[in-house]
Amino acid sequence: MRIVQVCPYAWDSPGGVQAHVRGLARELTRRGHTVQILAPGNAPSADPAVMIVGRPVRVRYNGSVAPICPHPLALARVARLVRALRPDVVHVHEPFSPGLGLAATLAARAPVVATFHASADRFWAYRLLSPLLRLVQRRCRHIIAVSDAAAALLQRDLGLRADVQYNGVDLETFAAATPLALPPAPTVLFVGRLEPRKGVRVLLQALPGLIARVPDVRVLVVGAGDGRAEIERLPAPLRAHVHALGAVSDADLPRCYASADLLVAPALGRESFGIVLLEAMAAGLPAVASDIPGYRAVVRDGVDGLLVPAGEAGPLAAALATVLTDRAVAAALAASARQRASAFSWRHAATPIEAIYVDIQTQARAQLHPARAPERTPTQA
Description:
Layout: E1 2-6, H1 16-30, E2 34-39, E3 50-52, E4 57-61, E5 64-68, H2 72-84, E6 89-93, H3 100-107, E7 112-116, H4 124-128, H5 130-138, E8 140-145, H6 148-158, E9 163-164, H7 171-175, E10 187-191, H8 200-213, E11 218-222, H9 228-232, H10 236-239, E12 242-246, H11 253-258, E13 262-265, H12 275-282, E14 287-290, H13 293-296, E15 305-308, H14 313-325, H15 327-342, H16 346-368
Parallel strand pairs: 1-2, 1-6, 2-3, 6-7, 7-8, 8-9, 10-11, 10-13, 11-12, 13-14, 14-15
Antiparallel strand pairs: 4-5
């Protein structure tokens, strides 16, 4: 089957949607399908399966900054490509975003599958733009949401029902990674954009309480953003415990997980799922995460990790210290986390999506070539 996936966000920027598209494409290719990815980017991709269409601009969206490409020339180009590539299925991610996904959905001649990744308390733009978005929605043969939280947003603000298919993870890549060359120390890992929504400030506020309980703790921070300035402003005694690595490559990211004892995910909200949680679990790490709907879909409190009230530094510090100092608790959480991750492997997660492709392709062929009605036999006198 020929499949075109359209990613709305810059391919060379870190993000959960990009990780989802990459992992799904890799598994579909392993199964013998031909997958072409269209995405914006700051530079051409070395991967021949990825075509960069337009340069991204950074737009504030859902409490974050989204690197999308709304340029008219890029939109016209992606519209031409989704026709010229002659795919059997076009799989568009975030088709309501003002960029490549929306243009591809409206232009595609092949059946369109749409995946929605975002979650929020309310998306007023969905309601304001609902007439336009309903036009886009009618072009989609099948609608997927990556979590119950994302599905609830679509149902509440647009009245759309979505088929929930959880994100996947490349299990082998994270399970087999080798650690970075770092001196021994109890290590907490943060992975994400350094922006308010991800809770970096809460993590820094929890640092004194964590150090008081675990004096030799090290916090590895992977990611870029304005929050880096807050790290640099820490008092020297606290700053010495934080190792800010900046953005790392996809190849090096698994090594960061392999270098840690646990993952911290202190997001304040608006997280539909949390791919970083899956990556950590695949690496055998328990997570200490905010108790928010998107994270509860992945981490079972007290089983695979610990969930704490979002935005509260005290409980966050205490939970981190518990996992770092209680070996029995840490070992039980890590074993369960690794087992839990296996259920989200792309080898499992891609199967229902592949079945959706086959189903809508069968429906499309039936519409193009309807079965001939049987000839009537003369009525007996």
